[in-house]
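Example 3.2
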Amino acid sequence: MKANAFSSKILLFGEYSVIQHSNALLIPYRLFDGTLMFKTANDGARDPELRAFGSYIKSLIKEKVLDFDFDLSTYEFDVGQGLYFNSTIPQGFGVGSSGALVAALYDRYVTSCSENKTDIEILKQHFALLESHFHGSSSGFDPLVSYLNRPILKDRTRGIKLVELPEDSSRDMGAFFLVNTGRSRKTEPLVNLFLEKCKTHEFSNLCESFLAPITNQCITSYINGDKQGLWEAMFELSRFQFEHLRPMIPKLYHDLWEQGLQEKNFFLKLCGAGGGGFILGYTRDLKDCTNQLRSLEIRHL
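Structure, written as tokens:
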């Protein structure tokens, strides 16, 4: 079997605000990845997660809701032979562990005609259906980024498109980094909390009138290489999240978050749903920031 590797992903901008119709920008994060492999005969029990996924596919076929060809017989045979996903992507950290798995399975077992495997809108629909097995519902974006291995912009008016980003090594643009909280979290309860808050007119209006526009400004500034615009927008986004989404920020990092806002050496924002996993940061001077935060586990994007 050809062993293609599929990387993790980062939702750079758009967490929660995308629910209020903002744009969103997702990028591959190649530090972590996963590959379909086979266990040896002595490696023990077969992967129950992949067996359950096979049952899910079987139910979709039975209900006639699967509008593409999934080679279920080969898949079930391979699972029986010890198929597993050899992954370095941490689970529950908001970097798309299930998305990379779905991308790998789609690449290996979906036998639809070639044009369906290159049409970005069709791919997203397929991935949303497949990843729903793991989350109850899925937008399909995580597997899409892992599968295409390209940055993707979700534009509320222009749809989905691949984008080119500024050179990551450009000092002029500053640098994004990740802070590892060391704790996993579940997405669903946090999203439900946000949706519950959105039931109040005041909070919903705040998200629509401020959170969505400032998120869009972050994305536009970053794509256009506007370093000052990005810096200013990141400050506003970080401040908004600290004031209005604090339950999503792990308590141990409240002081650090506030320190960034006060000293303006770096700004922090949620990476995905928050609650743990990684926290995303942005700084103008990565070397100085890394030294300042040397007691933490920092990863450069």
